[in-house]
Amino acid sequence: MCRSIKTLREPYTPEVTDDDVHAAALQYVRKISGFRAPAAHNAAAFEAAVATVAEATRTLLDQLVVRGGAGGPRAGQAAASAGATVSGAQRER
To answer: Quick check: pTM over 0.85?
Structure first.
């Protein structure tokens, strides 16, 4: 897909910021739309798509359960070993 989008889940990225999520969403929308910067008449649709993809990305990352992995126990890994799902409120950011 787009090589500049990095993996945002643990253990590849220990801390994911909102800027990381927005950057990945922006790269995705740029790739599929074919626009680096949309014309004024497409700007609202472009920004809405970026916001939607960023929200979906954050939801996905918040709901993933990471089992095992390197780097020692963290909130997601401890919950995974206990069989629980980690929500965004529970996960450290």
So the answer is: no
